[in-house]
Design a protein that fits this description.
The chain is α/β, with parallel strands linked by helices and about 220 residues long. The protein has helices spanning about 10-20, 35-40, 60-70, 85-90, 105-120, 150-160, 170-180, 190-200; strands at about 1-5, 25-30, 45-50, 75-80, 95-100, 125-130, 130-135, 140-145, 145-150, 205-210, 215. Strands 2-1-3-4-5 form a five-stranded parallel sheet, sandwiched between helices. It has a four-stranded antiparallel sheet with strand order 6-7-8-9, with helices on one face.
Length: about 220
């Protein structure tokens, strides 16, 4: 999952970005409202973590402008401001959730998972296709009765493909899901990750569609 983190406090922003990356997310960090709005128009982020007290444009202004141009991606507001009026304003403008600083990191990741489930139409934190199940809360993969916790990028790859089993994702789409700005991506990085996943489970767990990309079958491989 690729996250846009909008936070003007450099220390908080870098620390939170690092923690999210260690938790398996791909994160792009920006520090002002104008850059945030530009990023939301240019990159394919799955979710936005948006501070309210930003330079150039406030978080409320960013959210209003994004919703006016029909940007429906999920937004969670992160802010030290905990007044009821600001909560109401953010939620009325289309924020999906609101969490006040300081917050527990585990609570934040739980809220991220909950928001993404709602947008994907999933009631639980489990994604399933045939013999394959992903538990987003524990980052556990179960295949044919055997469960294990995968390394971050391998899990993120399967998560991207399992959001819509049967749908083909291209190399560029998978790279957007797995890597943030400024990260060097080897030309065969996706192939290597898919090789690791297939070697761990089964060669047909992720199928290649020649010239188009990869998919996880809807039914059993």
């Amino acid at each position: 999952m690729r996250i846009l983190l909008v936070e003007d406090d450099k220390m908080i922003g870098r620390s939170l970005a690092l923690a999210l990356r260690q938790a398996g997310f791909s994160v792009d960090l920006v520090e002002d409202g104008e850059t945030a709005l530009q990023a939301m128009g240019q990159a394919d982020h799955d979710l936005v973590l948006l501070d309210l007290g930003l330079p150039q444009m406030s978080g409320i202004q960013v959210l209003r402008a994004a919703r006016q141009r029909k940007d429906q991606r999920p937004v969670i507001i992160l802010t030290a401001r905990d007044g009821i009026n600001e909560r109401i304003a953010g939620l009325d403008l289309g924020a999906d959730d609101y969490i006040a600083k300081p917050f527990d990191f585990n609570e934040l990741t739980a809220r991220i998972r909950a928001v993404m489930r709602r947008h994907a139409g999933h009631a639980a934190s489990l994604l399933s296709a045939g013999d394959l199940t992903l538990d987003l809360a524990t980052r556990t993969v179960t295949y044919r009765g055997t469960s294990e916790v995968l390394p971050g990028r391998e899990f993120t790859l399967l998560h991207a493909l399992m959001e819509r089993p049967g749908m083909i994702l291209s190399r560029a789409q998978l790279e957007d899901k797995l890597y943030g700005w400024g990260e060097e991506v080897e030309s065969n990085a996706i192939d290597v990750l898919i090789h690791y996943v297939r070697r761990r489970y089964d060669k047909d767990i992720v199928r290649n569609v020649r010239g188009a990309g990869w998919m996880v079958p809807k039914g059993s491989p």
